[in-house]
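Re: flavin-adenine dinucleotide structure - here you go.
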Amino acid sequence: MAWDFSTEPEFQEQLDWVEQFCRTEIEPLDLVFPGAAYSRDPKARALADPLKQQVKAHGLWALFLDKDLGGPGFGQLKLALLNEILGRYRSAPVIFGTAAPDTGNMEMLAAYGTEEQKRRWLYPLMNQEIFSAYSMTEPQGGSDPSLFLTHATRDGEEWVITGEKWFTSAGARADIIFVMCTNGMFVAPGDAPGVEIMEYPPLHNHIRYNDVRVPADHLLGPEDGAKVLAQRRLGGGRIHHAMRTVAQVKLAFDIMCERALSRESHGKTIAEHQMVQEAIADSYAEINMLRLLVLWTAWTIDNSSTREARTQIAACKYTAAKVLREVSYRAMHIMGSLGTTNLTPLQAMWASAPTMAVMDGVDEVHKVTVSRNVLKGYEPHAGLWPTEYIPAKREEARKKYASLLAADPDLAAWADHAARATARGH
Ligand SMILES: Cc1cc2nc3c(=O)[nH]c(=O)nc-3n(C[C@H](O)[C@H](O)[C@H](O)COP(=O)(O)OP(=O)(O)OC[C@H]3O[C@@H](n4cnc5c(N)ncnc54)[C@H](O)[C@@H]3O)c2cc1C
């Protein structure tokens, strides 16, 4: 029987180590030196690098990559269980070598890069010797790639990239930028002449590519293949975000439950008030629905492919945003005034819910994908009545008993009476 919701003991040991390591090493670093793990400052790196070494020593570096590319080759299901822990700690993804946007870019390089491109960019990215960004969205429209205008023109042994991108996360500090053009995916050095970083927004950069020249071998994958590469990149990213969201909502739930047991109001603990119980019960069910959807999707990817699992991945994307919004709001509310401050993680978590609903493609677009793909498994009914129209089905079923009904008037009367009685409801 393959439906098994348990974790094998050897892997559970690794999960236990990760949990303890995050609690005792990463959380203190986040609290005292926030941002140190991402910083290029040598003093900050001296704090974070030994932690990365420990992760490597445990064989847990670059969790998302296959063995031949230097990762542990866990697959998505194990990665989901790990991300359920890592997602609770801000710096954990970078300390485990799994931080966006580098991860998605590495996946593209691993899948489509030539040996030379992998040597030049993939391995340095894996070792965090360089950092990358991903430039796809354009100011005039993000949800519809047919509106994108950025283009590369071939000029001898070079490509010349011209266009404007928006919301390129960490673009200003990237060593290399993956630029999605209408005619291919290109890799541009962050300091190439013509790469103009605009002042706003400060973190998710607006970048103008003013005739940026890159060598011919900076085209990644086939010419005109940008959409395929983008799908490959974003599919992985979405499910990984959903995995980490499970960690976030579990954190919100822990905060909510502890508080409900710790405070009193009107003569009893808050946990004894029914509306609080409803918030806890609904959150419990929603978190587990999301978690099982994510684990099932991860399992599907492991047993088929990201492409095969695309309907499930899309469902994970908007469900994660919804559960994050609902559960973090309830937790904040049950925390009362304290919940509205940024003295607990809840305020930031709740504020991130709209971001979750927009980044990696807006929820509406994913809902369209799910609906469209699901509907491929259905057909319109023939004739006037839906397939489940009971009188028509009964008429069909009566044919099975035709000789019996003809031979026995009592049974025929029973059947006629039953048909009228059932219809009487409305
Ligand atoms: C934190 C964050 C990080 C990001 N990082 C990156 C990055 O690194 N690189 C990158 O290239 N991009 C990045 N993005 C951009 C992201 O991919 C886009 O924001 C997203 O694709 C939506 O595009 P848009 O912002 O132009 O919104 P729009 O496309 O203008 O959509 C706005 C709203 O219009 C409605 N809408 C749009 N299309 C439809 C539709 N088909 N059906 C129904 N309603 C619709 C929805 O309500 C939607 O929320 C990031 C975004 C965020 C928030």
